[in-house]
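Agenda item 2: flavin-adenine dinucleotide complex prediction
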Amino acid sequence: MERTVHLTLQPRETFVLAQYLRHMVPDGRPPRVSSRFLLDFGLAFLHQIGEDGRPNDASPSEHVPISEEDALSLRELVPLNATLGGMAATRASGTTAVRYGTMRENVLGLTVVLADGRVVRTGTRARKSAAGYDLTRLFVGSEGTLGVITEVTVRLHGVPDAVSAATCAFATIQGAVDTVITTVQLEIPVARIELLDEVQMDACNRYSGLDCPVAPTLFLEFHGPSERSVAEQAEMVREVALEHGGSQFQWATDAEARRRLWKARHDAYWAALALRPGASGLTTDVCVPISHLAQCIVETKRDLAASPVPVALVGHVGDGNFHLVFVVNPDDPAEMAAVKQLNERMVLRALAMGGTCTGEHGVGVGKLPYMAREHGEALEVMRAVKQALDPHNLMNPGKLVAPPPDAGFVPRADDVP
Ligand SMILES: Cc1cc2nc3c(=O)[nH]c(=O)nc-3n(C[C@H](O)[C@H](O)[C@H](O)COP(=O)(O)OP(=O)(O)OC[C@H]3O[C@@H](n4cnc5c(N)ncnc54)[C@H](O)[C@@H]3O)c2cc1C
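Presented output:
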């Protein structure tokens, strides 16, 4: 008779996790029991990074945890108390990706424990390499389906000498997005350029005590080596914004005002939830080529007018990425059906524009239905990789590259991320 074992593991070292996994798949044979196990990680181990931003010369086998202070400043970069392993696994990014890149650009190497307990280290300290497949890029974004990331070596960027931030309200969302597109096309090196629609601005005003116009708004930040270079960038963007109906620039000049502004931005999800006390948040995102961003957002907003629930739009628009937070009652089937349809229309629109079904949040199980449409034959190649590295389907079964329907796998409700 089949037995199901539920385990929660909290390994603190790579080799301990490797032992667990070897034990579960002895001699490469399938597990005798149907096992479901949950791994609980804190902050992933990191190789120490030199002051020049490059990995230092410590032996790769020397696991040097970073100092608590460095860990804290790293965590400020990490959204929603996410872990570094989780960020690498979802190829995450955030408000500064437009200038500093996503986890794809900033992960230099990984230690990964495979499903059979083998431990692989990817990447080198060389600036570039032509030696073989790029396994770092394979595991970054694999959502835990190919192995467990236990160490992440990241590139750090220096703190800029001069910083300024501002908000700018627009008469229309089209004007705000056109400002972003022109800014990107002019290659003005903005450090952050975030869009909040009028619903989200209203929510942020109430939740975070801001006093901004209830209108589509850009949150901007400029970094540079001097006050002058930052002022030049800001002036260029201001001119672009004015051409597109932007007005009411509000500058956050000192560090405290900037911190308050970006805290409000990072609390956007909680602010949206507060629009409907007791409701839940259903988040989704897409990413499109920047040249299609305005059309995608405008058409999506037109659809959202029919939403039966409050829905807020926020976007890392400099990357062509935007998110919706539907504030739903998950127990109301009619509401959920309507929201599902709105989400689907947005995803199909993004795909038709040459974009992707998710720029950040990942596939999990929610975006599975769109993977074939987005990737075509390449999805079969992904499945082949999964089969090669995890033949017994132990690692996050049912996610990212779900088996074909005839395999009879039905994702469980609690597999939903
Ligand atoms: C309101 C809201 C806002 C968000 N904002 C952003 C954002 O700005 N930018 C962004 O990129 N994402 C965002 N996300 C998505 C998500 O928070 C990020 O992708 C985050 O990086 C996930 O990290 P985590 O540690 O919470 O991972 P989890 O949510 O715990 O896991 C995510 C996936 O990675 C796998 N995983 C976790 N750790 C490991 C590991 N060590 N090895 C292998 N696989 C692992 C898990 O099994 C799971 O499949 C947001 C989500 C929400 C709900």
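Discussion summary: The chain has a mean pLDDT of 84.
Owner for follow-up: CH.
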